[in-house]
Amino acid sequence: MRYFVHIGYNGLKYNGWQKQPGVMNVQGVIEQALSQVLKTPIFINGCGRTDARVHASQFFFHMDVEQPWDFDLMFRMNKVLPGNIAIFDIIPMDGLQHARFDAVQRSYDYFIHTYKNPFLNGLSSFYLLDKLDFDKMQQAAAILPNYKDYRAFCTSPDKYEHTLCYVKSASLSVDENGDHLRFQISSNRFLSKMIRIIMGQLLKIGKGVLSVEEFESYLINNKTPDLITPAHPEGLYLSKVTYPYLNLPPRQQFSSVLQMQADLCWKQV
């Protein structure tokens, strides 16, 4: 029997999702907990990969289990797992649906705060900046859905069969005081460090060291910037994963401080 499992995690202490020897990773921690609770080796497949210190307020993986359990697996798993990983739903599937290959859209949020804030430490990226040109940053963000090839904004494009990404939407929001920024982007897929590279470029535009025209030229010419400066990982969240047969709302309270700001304070640039 195949199951989809809906989870969220704070990635600050992890070297990303993917299981790797010798480092702490989310996949390995979950597999170990599942194998312990179900008393049989369990291997899981995630809906994608996240970098070290990157979070997921919505993430799915699938697993195959030969014998059904007769207890509350979600309750037991949440007791066994560390506090920075939470299981929200366990969903039996009718067939062999794939958590990674069947996803049709993924959405990310990137949060920035511009003053030192101990309550956002590790949940949002701290940049000591002021007088950013938000209008120019939004102009640059708005052109992203016009382009399909994102080779210019990838650290290792040659490892992919192609670098086409169908970006559905991209937008920048800011709170009333200009102290908190939120970049949102949705696409069918993303390349290695693509969002953090784009965010780094948007910050350069906001500071006036890169023009919107130069930013767009990278996309037009598939030319990688001479200096790639990805934004910090802590502000990045995988926030929504959509399937043709499964479209669950995220458990937004997972990042309650940020979501409260998102719901109450943000306004479109």
Strand content: 15-25%
CATH-scheme architecture of the largest domain: 2-Layer Sandwich
- Count of DSSP H/I helices: 6
Task: Name the CATH class of the largest domain.
Answer: Alpha Beta
Could you describe the largest sheet, including whether it forms a barrel? 10 strands, mixed
Structure described in brief:
It catalyses: uridine(38/39/40) in tRNA = pseudouridine(38/39/40) in tRNA. The protein is α+β, with helices and mostly antiparallel strands and about 270 residues long.
Characteristics:
269 residues, alpha+beta, Alpha-Beta Plaits, 2 domains, ten-stranded mixed beta sheet, 6 helices, PsdUridine_synth_TruA_C, tRNA pseudouridine synthase A, tRNA pseudouridine(38-40) synthase activity, tRNA processing
If you had to describe this structure to a student in words, what would you say it looks like?
- Residues 148-244 form the Pseudouridine synthase I TruA alpha/beta domain.
- One of its GO terms (biological process) is tRNA pseudouridine synthesis.
- By secondary structure, this protein is an alpha+beta fold.
- The protein is built from six helices and ten strands; from the N terminus they run E-H-E-E-H-E-E-E-H-E-E-H-H-E-H-E.
- It has two domains: 2-93, Pseudouridine synthase I, catalytic domain, N-terminal subdomain (Alpha-Beta Plaits, 2-Layer Sandwich), CATH 3.30.70.580; 128-231, Pseudouridine synthase I, catalytic domain, C-terminal subdomain (Alpha-Beta Plaits), CATH 3.30.70.
- The protein has helices spanning 26-38, 73-80, 134-142, 194-207, 212-221, 256-264; strands at residues 2-9, 44-46, 55-64, 85-92, 105-113, 125-126, 167-174, 180-187, 236-242, 267-268.
- Strands 1, 2, 3, 4, 5, 6, 7, 8, 9 and 10 form a ten-stranded mixed sheet that branches.
- Strand 7 and strand 8 (180-187) form a beta hairpin.
- Helix 3 (134-142) runs parallel beside helix 5 (212-221).
- The longest helix is centred in the C-terminal third of the chain and has 14 residues, at 194-207.
- The chain is globular, with a radius of gyration of 19 Å.
